[in-house]
UniProtKB/TrEMBL annotation:
Name of this chain's protein: Uncharacterized protein
Keywords annotated in UniProt: Membrane, Transmembrane, Transmembrane helix
Transmembrane segments: 21-45, 51-69, 114-141, 153-172, 227-252, 264-289
Length: 301
């Protein structure tokens, strides 16, 4: 028997710690893959380029250190703000709702609450980022425009961009978050729609909940294959839609139809495989880390 549960709040510290830990491990995996690629490429590089084995080794060490650490720090900030913004927005927008069978399997996600909350969080994060990046970018552009005038160099369009001033800042601080909200709403709504169509047929995401106290539940584990399968299929369908639009547009402009179809198929299959592997790894990491650093905790009502 299914029951609609609303996520009323997310415990910030466990959510942040779990997300950032998973991001750090995934970053380490990416770093190892990149180092292997660097090593293979380094073997075939001609000596005339002057790239030594020591330089490649130094770069590899930097990648191994910086990518996991950078992923961890970025994820700490993003995860903390995401959980905080979610908890602040719930009384105003309503929380994400889950249609759960036996408080375990998610067989449906009401589309509007899901899309509205996630797009609002995305827009808010972009707004906060633009408050920092916007002024820095405009000052840099204006400085480059002034320097180019004094040096007698003319870079097409740089002067007009640097002169935008407050208008440019408003575009970045207000316009960009609005665009992010619209794009995120469409994408998350499509994801929820396709999830709702597929979950009853192939099985939805499952959580092993543990009741901690009244209305508070911890997610002890997540079956990796079920999560990876439905996530990869949903993302592949969304990717297929946008790739179809891009392919049709390219063909209409004179590109080869055969090449467009082949590229579409390769992109969709590649996207499916990558998403499947990534989500499976994330679920495995979650199941390994949950007993050690603490599970994500949600208030369900």
């Amino acid at each position: 028997m299914s029951d609609i549960k609303e996520i009323k709040s997310i415990r910030i510290v466990p959510y942040t710690l779990m997300n950032s830990s998973i991001s750090a491990v995934v970053g380490l995996i990416y770093a190892v893959i990149l180092v292997i690629i660097l090593g293979v490429v380094g073997v075939f590089l001609p000596s005339s380029l002057g790239i030594t084995a020591g330089a490649i080794a130094s770069l590899a060490v930097a990648v191994i250190i910086l990518l996991p650490v950078g992923s961890f720090i970025f994820s700490v900030t993003q995860s903390f703000l995401t959980a905080l913004i979610y908890n602040v927005f719930v009384p105003r927008l309503g929380g994400i709702k889950l249609d759960l069978v036996d408080l375990k399997e998610i067989i449906g996600v009401p589309v509007v609450p899901f899309a509205l909350m996630l797009s609002a969080i995305s827009a808010t994060l972009v707004f906060l980022a633009m408050l920092i990046i916007g002024p820095i970018l405009l000052i840099g552009l204006q400085g480059a425009a002034i320097a180019s005038v004094y040096q007698g160099a003319t870079i097409p369009g740089l002067g007009s961009i640097g002169a935008l001033g407050i208008v440019g800042l408003l575009i970045m601080v207000i316009g960009v978050p609005i665009v992010m909200f619209i794009v995120s709403f469409i994408m998350t709504a499509l994801a929820a729609i396709f999830y709702n169509l597929l979950a009853p047929k192939i099985g939805g995401i499952e959580f092993e909940f543990e009741a901690l106290k009244e209305k508070l539940y911890g997610i002890n584990s997540i079956p990796p294959i079920k999560l990876a399968l439905i996530a990869s299929i949903v993302m592949a369908i969304i990717n297929l839609i946008f790739e179809l639009i891009s392919t049709v547009s390219s063909i209409a402009m004179g590109s080869s139809a055969a090449a467009g179809v082949i590229s579409l198929l390769i992109n969709v299959v590649f996207n499916f495989v990558i998403v499947f592997i990534l989500y499976a790894i994330m679920a495995v990491l979650y199941n390994y880390l949950a007993p050690r650093i603490g599970a994500v905790k949600l208030e369900l009502e």
